[in-house]
């Protein structure tokens, strides 16, 4: 972290009570979708049995994989990126781009398939996004992406699976 960012974050400490709580933002504040997503009511212990430990840590303990470690960084084929836990489609490949950050990045998600909450882990507030269905942590939304939207959806590769175009999407996990 750059020294300036750290100092700016520290300057916000006295204002944290004024910034609001860490409560999840409602899905109504996420992108609109023509098909509403029904959230799963599945305990984290059940997901732990289905996922590799590193994927579980990212999805349900909000861990972050090491930059540059995901093979999805190099994925250039047409297809769909789905949640690694519940298999909900989250991103279409035409919205993937090389951000230079070391994580798979997208200009926009599939409408209505993400939910949001505030993240203060680095002291200053960030927008964290999750799968709207299972609640699995995907990454963070930044406003430094390419035009016209200016959005960078920075995703953990461990939180995604890629399904090439022409292959059937797996059935949603319940």
TrEMBL record:
It is an enzyme of class 1 (oxidoreductase). It holds the Pfam family SelR. Residues 44-165 form the MsrB domain. It catalyses: L-methionyl-[protein] + [thioredoxin]-disulfide + H2O = L-methionyl-(R)-S-oxide-[protein] + [thioredoxin]-dithiol. Its EC number is 1.8.4.12. It comes from the Bacteria. Keywords: Oxidoreductase, Signal, Zinc. SUPFAM superfamilies: Mss4-like. GO terms for biological process: protein repair; response to oxidative stress. InterPro entries: Met_Sox_Rdtase_MsrB, Met_Sox_Rdtase_MsrB_dom, Mss4-like_sf. One of its GO terms (cellular component) is cytoplasm. Residues 1-28 form the signal peptide. One of its GO terms (molecular function) is peptide-methionine (R)-S-oxide reductase activity. NCBIfam families: peptide-methionine (R)-S-oxide reductase MsrB. PANTHER family: METHIONINE SULFOXIDE REDUCTASE, PEPTIDE-METHIONINE (R)-S-OXIDE REDUCTASE. This is peptide-methionine (R)-S-oxide reductase. It comes from Pseudomonas taeanensis MS-3.
